[in-house]
Amino acid sequence: MPHSASLCRFLIACFILSGSLSVRADDGPPRFRLLTEPEMTPAQRELAQNIRSGPRASVVGSAANASATSLGSPFNVFLRSPELGEHLQRTGAYIRFKSVLGPKLTELAILITARHWTAQYEWHAHHRLALQAGLSPEIAAAIAQGKVPTGMSEDEALVVRFCTELHQNKKVSDSAFEAVKQRFGEQGAMDLIAVNGYYVLVAMVLNVDRTPIPGGAPLPLPVLK
């Protein structure tokens, strides 16, 4: 067990440090202009309504309800391809609100993904949600600073290990997979793969868009050396 724990900490550190190369949200103005409802196509209006009327509508500060006439990103970017955007928003809604992993572990995986991509807006949006879901501020701070989290629960540690291996090695070891499967079942393993994959896509959207932090606030993630 000590050897396994040491290996886990090493893999976590490698993964977090791999987030040093990515686009920063302050590289320039957003590339996708905010679309207001009057200028949307019928398909775009339908997508916007589906997003606004879904489970995100009850989340304070969500990009789904940031304005009465427009959507924040990534949804503003999703509007550019409404049919694809509809599939993506449904996938995201499942991951956020129905995954068998529960909110805290889901948000933990999202933060790991945001750190890997140095996705500033993704971190900004989900750091608050992670803490509200019960994630320790110290664990989040360690990930943000490129340090190995300590004081994790068993569930948190196995999720971090799985996500670390998946991002860093592009696959996971038998032991990491079996730990997740035994704890959450095969559905949980699939849900954990999905949260990482979906939020990589969201990070790409936000970084390409150069979505800014609201109010011109400082970037929450340092660029690691």
Give a verbal description of the structure.
This protein is an all-alpha fold. The chain has a single domain (2-22, 31-216), classed as AhpD-like (Up-down Bundle), CATH 1.20.1290. The chain has nine helices and no strands. It has helices at residues 2-17, 42-52, 75-78, 82-97, 102-117, 120-132, 137-144, 154-169, 174-209. The chain starts with a helix and ends in a 16-residue tail after the last helix.
Which features characterize this protein?
60% helix; mainly alpha; 225 residues; AhpD-like; globular
Q: Name the helix and strand elements from N-terminus to C-terminus, one letter apiece.
A: HHHHHHHHH
CATH topology: AhpD-like
Our measurement of the CA-to-CA distance between the termini, rounded to an integer number of angstroms, reads 31 Å
What is the strand content?
A: under 5%
User: What is the residue-mean pLDDT, rounded to a whole number?
Assistant: 88
- The CATH class turns out to be Mainly Alpha
Rg (CA only): 18 Å
What is the domain tally?
Answer: 1
CATH architecture: Up-down Bundle
SSE layout and pairings?
Blueprint lengths: L1 H16 L24 H11 L22 H4 L3 H16 L4 H16 L2 H13 L4 H8 L9 H16 L4 H36 L16
Give the structure's gist in a few sentences.
The protein is mostly helical and 225 residues long. 60% of the residues lie in helices and 0% in strands.
